[in-house]
């Protein structure tokens, strides 16, 4: 039997406490009783760390290498002496690197208990990525009131995909909900998606309006995606999307940098090359001014190019090439559609009415004639055609003598 007590100086003040380390489990106690033969033990006033979980208990009983029981304990993932948050319970069982379970538990924030409780608790202790609840933290704001921020859940969906849901709740009635997801497949693609919705209710403390609160509902979408060049040689795809309500950033709580961000922009690009003979480029772009509420879209912008080809050139050149074999023809085509509207007056019909689209086609023809002494002729001609989505009809008014 091994027994250890904390050392004290001549005045009775503690100098140091006994520590016990086994694998990734570390504990510091006032008193340790440990049977080296049966691997069982009992500790008092123990501070224990298991992975990312911190437990402080009046009494801890170890019954085998993997299992311990705690009596009157506090557990948290915060490593401070007075943690930002914690759960208190009378009984708790922990299985090393697997799970912790408890009976009824009540939360506390910075040592202050909250008059709420849960009938039981299940706390994963797995190493590495694992699903679980995300604890909130208290927040206080003159505009939003008292609140809980960051309460959520993290879910590992696969080795390549995970998702996080977080929420904020405020005493004035406002709330915020965010869904964030990340995905990655090596040598294929990677990206992230963020969807946010907030129902804002802000106290009008300045007395500028008759209403006691200002209410609004806003949203935001953030999407980032890139494809590895090895996934599909000859083509590429990337996206960086930031779009949403123009007032969203203005109402985000406790983030002054984001509050003054008044512009948003997005871009999506795709390119394809066919062996250096043809290439295609398609893109979509978006810009948004938060002060004016003006949204501009270039959706889509496309370009298709055919490099110069020589239709009369022989596949197997024999002797001196004929003059017409050097006749080259190329092609460049462009298409663009532009849309502008104010988000405060958004409707599908108005958006379609503001659409301005058109296309251009250019066909260059070149010919390099054989050199005639000191004279070298290289005639070329180019054909260009423009297509417009709108037309203007003008006529002569005989009475007014005006067009």
UniProtKB/TrEMBL annotation:
Protein name in UniProt: LPS-assembly protein LptD central domain-containing protein
User: LPS-assembly protein LptD central domain: which residues?
Assistant: 101-398
Region described as Disordered = 1-21
Pfam families, sorted: LptD_2
- What's an example GO cellular component term for this entry? transporter complex
Where does this protein come from, organism-wise?
A: uncultured Segetibacter sp
């Amino acid at each position: 039997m091994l027994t250890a007590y904390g050392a004290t100086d001549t005045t009775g003040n503690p100098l140091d406490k006994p520590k016990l380390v086994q694998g990734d489990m570390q504990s510091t106690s006032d008193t340790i009783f440990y049977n080296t033969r049966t691997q069982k033990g009992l500790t008092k006033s123990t501070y224990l760390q298991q992975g990312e979980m911190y437990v402080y208990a009046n009494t801890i009983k170890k019954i085998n290498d993997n299992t311990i029981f705690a009596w009157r304990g506090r557990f948290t993932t915060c490593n401070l002496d007075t943690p930002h948050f914690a759960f208190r319970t009378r009984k708790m069982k922990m299985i090393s690197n697997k799970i912790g379970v408890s009976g009824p538990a009540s939360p506390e924030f910075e040592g202050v208990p909250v008059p709420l409780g849960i009938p039981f608790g299940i706390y994963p202790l797995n190493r590495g990525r694992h699903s679980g609840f995300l604890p909130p933290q208290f927040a206080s704001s003159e505009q939003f009131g008292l609140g809980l921020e960051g309460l959520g859940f993290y879910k590992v969906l696969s080795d390549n995909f995970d998702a996080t849901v977080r929420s904020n709740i405020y005493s004035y009635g406002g709330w915020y909900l965010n869904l964030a997801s990340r995905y990655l497949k090596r040598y294929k693609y990677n990206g992230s998606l963020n969807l946010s919705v907030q129902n804002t209710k802000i106290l009008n403390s300045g007395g500028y309006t008759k209403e006691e609160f200002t209410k609004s509902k806003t949203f935001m979408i953030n999407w980032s995606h890139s494809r590895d060049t090895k996934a599909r040689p000859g083509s590429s795809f990337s996206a960086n999307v930031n779009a949403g309500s123009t007032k969203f950033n203005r109402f985000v709580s406790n983030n002054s940098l984001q509050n003054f961000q008044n512009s948003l922009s997005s871009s999506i690009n795709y390119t394809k090359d066919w062996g250096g003979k043809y290439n295609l480029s398609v893109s979509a772009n978006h810009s948004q001014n938060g002060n004016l509420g003006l949204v501009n879209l270039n959706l889509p912008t496309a370009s298709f190019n055919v490099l110069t080809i020589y239709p009369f050139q022989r596949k197997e050149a024999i002797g001196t090439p004929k003059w017409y074999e050097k006749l080259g023809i190329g092609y460049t085509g462009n298409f663009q559609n532009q849309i502008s509207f104010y988000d405060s007056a958004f409707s599908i019909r108005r958006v379609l009415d503001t659409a301005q689209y058109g296309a251009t086609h250019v066909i260059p023809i070149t010919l390099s004639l054989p050199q005639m002494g000191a004279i070298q002729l290289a005639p070329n001609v180019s054909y260009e055609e423009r297509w417009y989505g709108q037309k203007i009809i003008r006529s002569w008014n005989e009475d007014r003598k005006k067009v």
